[in-house]
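In this section we walk through a basic example: taking a raw amino acid sequence and producing a predicted 3D structure, encoded as discrete structure tokens. The instruction is simple. Fold the sequence below.
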Amino acid sequence: MGAQLHESELTVGGMADAAAFLDTFRRRHGRPLRVLHIGNVANNAYNNAKLMRKAGAECDVLCYNYYHIMGCPEWEDADFEAAPSDQFHPQWSDVDLGAYQRPQWFVQGPIAFCMAYLIAKLEGNKARADILWRVLGICNGTMRAEWFPRDPELLWALIVAHWARAKDFYRRVAISNDPWLAIRRRMGIEERARPTVKVLAAHATMGAVTVVRALDRVLGGKDRMRAMEMRVGRRAKELADAFAHEFPERGDRLTVKELLEYGSLSDLWSRLLSHYDIVQAYATDAIFPLVAGKPYFAFEHGTLREIPFNPDPVGRTTALSYRLAQHVFVTNADCMGKARQLAGERITFINHPYDDDQEVDVVAAERLRRELGERLDADFLIFFPTRHNWRPPNAEKANDVLLRAFCRLRAGGKRVGLVCCDWGADAPESKRILAENDCGAHVSWVQPLGMVRFGRMAKACDIVADQFVFGAFGGILFKAFAVGAPVLTYLDESAVLRVYPECPPVLNCRTEDEIVRAVEAAIASPGELRARARASKAWMDKHHHASLTVAKQIEQYRRFLEGE
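The resulting token sequence is shown next.
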């Protein structure tokens, strides 16, 4: 199917077709359409799966070896006062999340543990799945180790049945002065899970050395390992040859050795993927189903700007996985050209998945606005949640342009306040600019906000500011639009109009002067700003509604399953 831009924007009829297909599938198979989402940068897979589940599909998310705070369900759906101190390995059990409970279809932890849990769940082994869910909870910070159940027999059965099949299981790891390191390598887990391994050994009443030796015994012997290596080796050779055939113009080549890194869990991948009707992999993770030989859909979220064209192993494997994907979903307008280079006409532009039907506590937002106004000596508030990356080599956001414009506005007598999120490599330099211009007292630095509080802050402020470089938009714009907040950013309108029938009604600025003029105009015309806020929500409902995002994907799933 060809790339479909705004001409193919799905109507109510198209969404009805998607619902009809899901209903027909359920009646025909006696169960819902089953979809596995692999990878979860920026919670795109979580949000996508949540929306598909609302539509009637049965979705799981495999979020392996990735714990960043913005890749956790709590970030989207829980209302918490203070985020965990470690953004890369948050300990959610230390945070008051109220009544919120993480859904058991979102699976986060070491890759082998994640696959073992999903297999147990899908094959109806509830006891094993329950134990594995607790193990994953310890690894991902939603549970503490002391909560782990004492069932040595079941723990040991799980170790020998599943966890031994890990990334490096076929490599010899000598028992060294640190036997826990040997166990972690055997089980494909990282340093964060070290306490989990100790808990397992303690509850199983055995020491580390005993566990390592037992794992050696249950790996299946040299014959089994040799057979698996031969199978993976054949697939790796096929894919290396495919790369040379698909990209004859490239000077670099994908090697068998590079592909073997992805094949060591091939038995688990094959078993897991056999349970799903659709496999959808995000960013660079499409290589997993490719190596496993399972048809898959690829989902990019900025992935295609540079990564597939880099002459390194990740670039080569990403390029091949997008070239051989069943279909590619593109969420960034500026990536459409790169997507065509890799996948031809097998691409569909879709919106970033986001649940836009979220309520904002208006009373709390008004209270927050009063507090910020008093503290920052401001009548007009700008919320600037964007990551502070504006110096080479990662000059992605041009934060300094907004900051210098803000300082000029204050110097010109405008009672403007600014709320910045304290994250990004250049946050210290951003603070230096503000201090040098005597504006520090008019800026509130907050930790990155979960989506519940993001919406509240966006409603409390007059304008939400985003990036001033790429000309495309991502999460900040549509999350602000969803709550009816106007956005100040730079958009390349010609690029946006290639994928949308009309541009988002932003305050479109790129330079310091343009920002100053736009904010001065907004301060002078509050009625126009309110009208822009209403237009923002209307644009979101018309062009970026969650149902459109889901329906476009379901349509491609239908075509694949029905052989069109």
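Looking at the output, two observations stand out. The CA atoms of residues 5 and 87 lie 36 Å apart. The radius of gyration is 25 Å. In the next section we compare this with other chains.
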